[in-house]
Design a protein that fits this description.
Blueprint (H helix, E strand, L loop, with lengths): L7 H23 L3 H40 L18
Helix pairs in contact: 1-2
């Protein structure tokens, strides 16, 4: 799985969740419990969606990193600026 290092633990847990959900859905289907199988399939899609988000986050990170390197090659000075948090105004 191609995810950010900080997301690796969560990605593994989500992958295992996907596998487990499919296994449970198949088991429930085998005993003709369609509603329970459907519940496990829905849980599979939830875990899959969350795993896909982690994979997408890594792709976006890689894309931005490539962009920064490309701009640096062209002589563009890239400086990361952190915005100062402003206090929320009370009305």
């Amino acid at each position: 799985m191609d995810v950010l290092p900080g997301d690796k633990k969560m990605a593994v847990a989500l992958y295992e969740c996907c596998y487990s959900c499919l296994k449970r859905a198949r088991m429930e289907l085998g005993i003709d419990n369609i509603d329970e199988a459907d519940r496990w399939i829905k849980e599979f899609w939830r875990c899959k969606r969350d795993l896909d988000k982690l994979i997408q986050r890594k792709k976006e990170y890689d894309r931005l990193t490539d962009l920064v390197h490309e701009m640096q090659k062209k002589g563009v000075d890239i400086t990361i600026l952190e915005k100062e948090k402003r206090p929320v105004r009370q009305h």
